[in-house]
Amino acid sequence: MPHILYINFNTGNTMNATLKTMLQHRSIRKFTADDIDEQTLNLILQAACNGSTMGNMQLYSIIVTKDKEKMKAMAPLHFNQPIATNAPVILTFVADFHRFNKYCEYRDAATDAYSNLQSYHWAVIDAIIAAQNACVAAESLGLGFCWLGTITYNADKFIEALQLPKHTVPVACIAMGYPDEQPELTDKLPLEALVHYETYNDYNKESIDWLYTEKEAHENTKKLLEENNLPNLARIFTERRYTKADNEHFAKVIETVMKRQGFL
Amino acid sequence: MPHILYINFNTGNTMNATLKTMLQHRSIRKFTADDIDEQTLNLILQAACNGSTMGNMQLYSIIVTKDKEKMKAMAPLHFNQPIATNAPVILTFVADFHRFNKYCEYRDAATDAYSNLQSYHWAVIDAIIAAQNACVAAESLGLGFCWLGTITYNADKFIEALQLPKHTVPVACIAMGYPDEQPELTDKLPLEALVHYETYNDYNKESIDWLYTEKEAHENTKKLLEENNLPNLARIFTERRYTKADNEHFAKVIETVMKRQGFL
């Protein structure tokens, strides 16, 4: 029996503390005044830096923001979301080939092998693995967090604010602290919507209707439709939250950043 | 006291089961013949699908490969790594805007708002968050796994093999099963190499030397240098493992894929 950790808990199922943490995840946007002490932050950072990584190159850096002045200066780049200044700690995860290139430079190895779109993917993936590990670790310690998608919108300005060198791109930004709210679990699509067996099982009108039934019937959705005076959730996304014009504007920003940082 | 989960364990520190799992992570490449039963796989998939996601759009799909014939057919795309056929389950995580676009189509919303490089980033990030959640969940259940970076190398051919539609790109591939080996923990860079406070703390010859000391002195590194007859680890990467020519070749593949799939 090799599965020494594969323990049956109380109820005869395989639920454990880690799964409970992950299945109770919800974003937290309000934090208490409590700071995150050094030992706790260190554990989170250690977990972040112990994830899988391409060829063990660890192609990421983490910028810890605790300085309130720094947070305030960056708040406009996060479109002044309150958590951009209210969280005790913000962790920015940077896809980073700069350190590895420096290592190559000082060991007389080629320094131009990783200035391309394939290498960019490795670094982005490494950075997100680290970020998600940090999130799970934080929740296991009773912390809450919210991702700030604005980091890729304004990547150019964050590069300046965080003094990031060439061959780095910030790709994840997580505000964390002790929860001062306990929102309901977010409505999610059923597993059937997300999981395919062997090959991609394409969607049609009927399956989309069925898979989105619960989400569309959700209290939050109804509230959103009223507030926005729109007939369905899809149009809230395309006409309010993430419009074509905005997305194409920010696509140009990230494309320029990828070029300037040496990946495209 | 809001931190109800912030428990001090035995030794007066904050270590818990989740952190222990994460800090003991190592890639597993040899699996027992044991299958992953449906309940266990379901828990892993549920954890995967409960992570943070851009605007709660859940911009990913997961393809479960269990069919050995299918694995064998895809093995060459994974450069015939043994785990590509020896694992009982392979999970492929796909950055997926197709489902959301379909939803928009059937709700008379715009279907061209997310055909751009910014939206691509959201979907890639969502897919990797889901993938890493699956990994942590799997390890908490006693499973082991290894990421197959080959998924982005041969993304074009995986799209064909998995019958992925436009607006999807496979970005993570994880072979998992019950461990039939217990390798040592991988040597990692010290936290000081990866974590910066407030702004990026650039590297110089002295700091690189210091930060890579342990890695360069590691038994595995010495073995690699002998095997490759090369003077240092950097040159093993640039001259053997991930060469400029290979990387640039595979950069063209992913660039073509991103264009053809409607993101660039």
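Chain A touches chain B through 135 residues (CB under 8 Å).
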